[in-house]
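Task card 7
Instruction: Convert sequence to structure tokens.
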Amino acid sequence: MSAVEQSAAVDADENLTDGFNLIIDALKLNGLNTIYGVPGIPITDFGRMAQAAGIRVLSFRHEQNAGYAASIAGFLTKKPGVCLTVSAPGFLNGLTALAHATTNCFPMILISGSSEREIVDLQQGDYEEMDQLAIAKPLCKAAFRVLHAADIGIGVARAIRAAVSGRPGGVYLDLPAKLFGQVMNADAGAKSLVKVIDAAPAQIPSPDSIKRALDVLKSAKKPLIILGKGASYAQADDAIRSFVEKSGAPFLPMSMAKGLLPDTHPQCAGAARSTVLKDADVVLLIGARLNWLLSHGKGKAWGEAPKKFIQIDIEPKEMDSNVEIVAPVVGDIGSCVTALLNGMGSWTAASADWIKTVTTKRDDNIAKMAPKLMNNNSPMDYHGALGVLRTIVKERPDAILVNEGANTLDLARGIIDMYQPRKRIDVGTWGIMGIGMGYAIAAAIETGKPVLCVEGDSAFGFSGMEVETICRYNLPVCIVIFNNDGIYRGTDVNTSGNGDPAPTVFVKGARYDKMMEAFGGQGVNATSPDELKRAVNAAMDSGKPTLINAVLDPAAGSESGRIGNLNPQSKLKKK
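Output:
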């Protein structure tokens, strides 16, 4: 008798339940109705049963991509995204996404089947034996193991609360194989389940911290507000917009905060980034960290003008992480921004000279960029292709934009304007490759909106097999691959003479669109901006899974995009 049949027999007896049903009931009780994962021992039957019980189960081709889907589901919904994997290798595949979720502050729960404790502890060589809990602990916010069916309710509740409370992050939940089949009294089982109440309570900032921050901000002649993805995650959109507009200060959105206020907003300084970072005298960080993405708050990018930093963050330890924070405001972003807004009173805006300087620089840079975005070169360059996508996103502001790559990411971030919150999702804090297909799938599932996924050809290679998943679930995802035959460029040369291609070069003239057609999706080969525009619009109108192979000049692109300074260069002369 299979596990499903055994569980059905258990269900037939009104007085009994088992681990399978208790896990499903615990998830449903807490509104976790979607699972991303890969089936296999020992969780195959659990996936079938969860689906039969009304949970949507999305089956992927690789656990890492399922994990990325769960992580971005957490960002979009503020509920933990759930990823389900098999033991050992499957668990390890999901662990990269779990660590990524923790680093980016996305609430996620990785649930993995595992070997029995008595075998693991004696290292007796069980099937896929591994002490998964010990391995997960250093890479996530919290990790729990459930050994008894009666503890499933508490285990799931603890995982949920840990994932979303305070600074959100990834949580690991270890479920040994024997747990699923454990039987207990149904009434007792129902009573053991826990509905989590107020999982992420508001954390109100102290009045003194609000007054201190406002005093510093009001003293500024050249203030700057930086919005990070934490501000986007908070879903305090109205309060943030009201505060920014009342302040009159220029704002700089980090990539996943684009759209909190439209990039075309008169206060947006995205096109004058270098100027505002270099010349501002007071900088207010809302849900942004002074990590490598902001040059750690110091160095050449920040100029010589002295800076005072105000920082809003729910994690007290984040303060002073790189530079002194003269006005730390600790609390959840919604509560902190609302308190600042309520305490502002009559506001003295930034100096007219500062506003004029920023506006002039922004407008000049936009004007300089405009001709590059209007070219119709064939083969395409990045600017011509992104100019087309920029217009399409403007016409379809409700669509979700997923973006990854090197040049494809760096240039798209600055060129494609966003108009609504949480419509741009990308590689985040680690700047990794491989999030594309998982993010696109979860965005379509969680929001019901059409998805435009813009990929470098190298980035696509990390998760490209998931196009079958997109086709299988018939999702409204349009993938555009910027294909320049290689990593950064397709023109690198192997000087060794051994006949191998250079490490950064791919197959010349690859047709990724044919890969999509193999699974029943729409494939298009676009060789000019005009062809690209027609193909993307047709795909977005149809809502059908589509992959567009956008043929770029192999020489287009630069080494490591805009972060080439992070790529060490040899000091030795070539002989």
